[in-house]
Amino acid sequence: MANSLYSDLQNDEFRLLKAFYDQNRVLSCNMTAFNLDSHPAYTALSYAWGKELFAVPISCNGETINISRSLLSAFEAFVECPSLQTPEWVWADFLCINQKDEAEKAVQIRVMDQIYKKAEIVTIWSGTGDVKTQESLRTLENFGCMIARSPPIHSMDYVMSLSGDPQWTELEPFFRREWFTRSWVVQEVLLAQKARLVCGTTSIDWNKVIDLYLGCLEESQSNKVMLIRHELGYNVLRSLYDLSRKLGSSYYDLELLNLIRQRVCKEPVDKVYSILGLINPEVRAKIVIDYKIDPWSIFIRLAQELLKHHGPDVFILAPSVERPPELPSWVPNLLSSPLMTHAWYKHTASKLEEATGVDPEYKIPDKAALLTVDAPGICMAIIGNVYPLPDLSDGIITEHHARELLEAVKFCRTIWAQRNQKFKLKENVLTLIGGVVSRREGLERPIMDEFNEMIRNLKGFLNGDMFNTPNAHFMQSMMDAWKGACLFTTEDNHVGLGPKTMQRGDKVWIFFKASTPFVLRGNKDRVTHQLLGPAYIHTFMDGTAFEAKNPRETYEILTIQ
C-alpha cells in the first residue's frame, strides 16, 4: 500500500537513506529504493527503538514523519562524526520499512538477513554517552593491563572493597543499556560482515570489544572480576560469541532458541521473527509472518518444524519457568526463561542407530492447532525418590547455599551406600555435575580429586574463606547443571538429575534419535503424557542401556501433549 512517502516495493527491493542537516540546521533525510543485488555501499543500523516512540519529527523526502529519540540521536551521530560518515547510505528499519503496511513488513522481515549480510558495516548504536562513559569504553584496549594489576581474591571483604572502582562501575550501566537485551540484535550482529559499537562519538570495532573485553574477563578467574563480571556484560557478550562460533552446527537452531528466550522484544511474535534470518531455511519457509497471529501458534509451529529437522532434542528446551495452558508440554515457551540447563546435546542416549536397526517415525501434525506428538521410545526407569538441590544461579555461593549443597552431597552418598558394590562413586560425581561435565576442559586432575577439593573449599567458605581458582570451572558446571534440577533415584537404584517439577512415579524415557533421556508423567486420561524435561543418568547417556532393551522389538509410541 503506497502513500506519499512510501512507494510500493518489489520483493527484491529495499530502501536506503542519507541523513543531513538542512540550511536551517534541521536534521533531514532522503530515502531511495534499491535492488538487493544492485545498491550502493551502506551501513545497517542496529539499535533499540526506545520507549518514547514517534516522539520527534524529522523531514524525510520533504515530508514530516515522527521517529524515536534513539533513532534521532543515531542520525545526529552519523552527520556529526566524521568516522561514521562512511558509508553515507544507511538502512534503519523504522524508516526504511513502511510500518503501516503489514504486507511490506512481512516481505522485508524475510529479507532482513540479506540486508545485514550485504551491509558494508553494521553500526551498533548503543546510545549517547557522557564523557565518563566514553572514556570508560576507550579503556577496553587497556583492559588486559588493568586486570593484570588486580590482585587475587583472598576474602569477600577484599572483593567488596574493590568493587567500587570507577573503571568497573562506569561500565556496569553501559552494559545494562537496552541494546544489550534486545532480541533483534542477535541476528543483526551475527549476520554482519563487520560491525562497530558506537556510543556518542566513540566508535570501537565490535570484534575488538569481544576479543579484548571478553577475553580479559575470562583471564581474570583469580581476580575480583570473576565475582562481578556478570554485571559487566560478560553473559551478554559471551552468549553472542558462543553462538557466532556455532553458526552452521547441527544444534545451532536449538542454541539460538535458548538464547532468544532470554531476550526482550516489544511484540511476543518477534521472539521468532527476530531470528528468522539465522534459522534453517526450510524451517524459516514454514513460518508465517503475521502480527495478528497469537504467539502461541507461532511457537508451536516453530517447534513442529524444528522437531522435523532436529528430532527429539528439541524437547530439551521445553522446560520453562512459566507455562501457559495454550502451549503443549513439549513446546518451549519463548516468553519465559528456561527452567533447566540446555547443554546436554553431546550425549548419545539413543543414537546408536547401527545397533538398533530401526528408525521409527515421529508423527508431527502439520497444523499448529494440533498439539500432540507421537514419539517412539523405551521406558527405562520409574522414579523412586526425589531430593531438592540448592539454587546456585546467582553466581556467588552464600553460606545458606553452601550448606544446602553439602546436604545434597550427603543425600547422594547415602544413596550410593545403599546400592550394591557395582555402583561406582565416579558415577555419583558425574551425576551431580550432570550434562555439563565437558566444561572441565583443560583440567587434568581426576574427577574425584576435584570433587573432594570442592567439598573442602565449601567447608572453608563456611569459615569465611572464598573458594579458589582451580575450583572455579567445576563450580560453574555445578551451577549450570543444577539450574531448575533435582536429584532423584529410580526404583531400580539409578541416580540422576532431572527437572525439579518431577515426582515419585514419573517415568524416564529414551526416544529414538535423542541425545538424553526425558522424564514424563502420565495424564489422567491414561493416553497422553506430559513432558517434564531432560534427565541425566550417567549409565544411560552413551546408548548402551537403550541398546540392551532390544528397542527393535520393544519400543512403544508415546503421545505427548
UniProtKB/TrEMBL annotation:
A Pfam family matched in the record: Het-6_barrel
InterPro entries associated with the record: HET, HetReg/Transcr_Mod
Lineage top rank: taxon: Eukaryota
Domain Heterokaryon incompatibility: 42-188
Protein name: Heterokaryon incompatibility protein-domain-containing protein
Species lineage: Eukaryota, Fungi, Dikarya, Ascomycota, Pezizomycotina
